[in-house]
Specification:
Layout: E1 2-22, E2 24-37, E3 41-48, E4 51-52, E5 58-59, E6 61-68, E7 73-85, E8 88-98, E9 111-119, E10 128-137, E11 152-160, H1 173-176, E12 179-189, E13 192-201, E14 212-219, E15 226-233, H2 239-250, H3 254-264, E16 266-274, E17 280-287, H4 293-299, H5 303-316, E18 329-335, H6 336-343
Antiparallel strand pairs: 1-2, 1-10, 2-3, 2-4, 3-6, 4-5, 6-7, 7-8, 8-9, 9-10, 11-13, 12-13, 12-18, 14-16, 15-17, 16-17
Helix pairs in contact: 4-5
Length: about 350
């Protein structure tokens, strides 16, 4: 990675508030200031909804508008970590932009890093931040060594019965070629039945799923475990929020997310499936007791777990805390690693 200094930014809190959770809490603040870089300069207005973690680390989460010196408007997004150092608070965040202005088209592909320090009392117009801004440029190059395909992981749900339903496990060497792991579960709902399919392949032999899906979350467990597949409906208009939510889990809440899954004893892979009527969240859960993970998440008193469960409820409409465990029926499961171990 190559870091190039491109400018500075100065901000001041014009409003700041805090809700104490007992263990951690939530900030809500408004910041204004000036951004001065080689790529763009102007006045920024930001809203910060940073979480205060129980370890006294804050998670700056800023969104706002940059009004450039030549009157263009640019959306600004920053995500990072803030911690105490030598009696003060320093922070590091990402910095990205979105705009339709042709003269600033290059901002849409700029990934920048901001390092800064907070000073002053936590009161409006008394707390300020001075920041340095760096452009980040990848130095790694695509590799064609070996010409091998990248592994592909897919999960999706289809109505049952239907033309794309996989009701039996791959039985022959030809059917199993390139498959590392696969499974299918039947899920019954008030609207009928669906079959949920999950496959890990080598990429070279990966078949295209019959529906449009995108993998947004993948956190493997600490050790190999049993698979459980399930799907939740997505409320109308919530797909964009789930994209943001998955970015938060993979970014500013990554450490808390990993710790939560460790407590639950599972790893999860989550797919967003786009359908003509109702989008679905498809979960592949792996662990020693994967069928009860959602129930245990809903019953947890941990602040992060409660936030995680509430987000899932808000986006799916399902009451996570009252969902019954392990109701889906496994139709079949194939594990290439287990099969090879049995042969040795």
């Amino acid at each position: 990675m190559k870091f190039t200094p491109i400018g500075e930014m100065d901000l001041a809190y014009v409003a700041v508030d805090f809700v104490d959770y007992g263990i951690g809490g939530q900030y809500h603040g408004t910041m204004e200031g000036q951004l001065r870089t080689e790529r763009v300069s102007g006045r920024v207005k930001l809203t910060n909804i940073a979480q205060k973690r129980s370890d006294n680390v804050n998670t700056p989460t800023l969104r706002g508008i940059l009004e450039t010196d030549d009157d263009a408007r640019v959306f600004v997004e920053m995500n990072g970590l803030s911690q105490i150092e030598e009696g003060g608070r320093v922070f590091i965040t990402s910095l990205t932009f979105r705009t339709a202005q042709a003269r600033y088209e290059g901002l849409n592909t700029l990934f920048a890093i901001v390092e800064g320090e907070l000073h002053g009392r936590p009161r409006p117009n008394e707390m300020h931040a001075h920041c340095r801004v760096y452009a980040c440029e990848a130095t790694i190059k695509p590799s064609t060594a070996g010409g091998s395909a990248l592994p592909v992981v897919i999960g999706y749900a289809v109505p049952a019965p239907g033309p794309n339903v996989e009701l039996r496990a791959p039985a022959t060497d030809t059917e199993r070629r390139g498959i590392a792991r696969a499974a299918a579960f039947r899920q019954r709902t008030s609207n009928g039945e669906m079959v949920i399919v999950y496959r890990e392949t080598d990429g070279a032999t990966a078949a295209q799923p019959p529906v449009t899906v995108e993998m947004l979350i993948r956190q493997r467990p600490s050790r190999r475990g049993s698979l459980y597949l399930m799907a939740l409906p997505m409320l109308a208009g919530k797909a964009a929020r789930f994209h943001e939510f998955s970015m938060e889990l993979n970014g500013i809440h990554f450490t808390e997310f990993q710790e939560s899954l460790r407590r639950l004893g599972v790893g999860i892979t989550v797919f967003l499936q786009h359908n003509a009527e109702v989008d679905l969240l498809v979960f592949a859960v792996e662990g020693d007791a994967p069928t009860t993970w959602l129930q245990r998440l809903g019953m947890s008193a941990d602040p992060f777990d409660r936030w995680f469960a509430q987000e899932l409820s808000d986006q799916s409409g399902a009451m996570i805390s009252s969902m019954p465990p392990g109701v889906n029926e496994q139709l079949w499961s194939w594990d290439g690693a287990a099969a090879r171990a049995g042969e040795s």
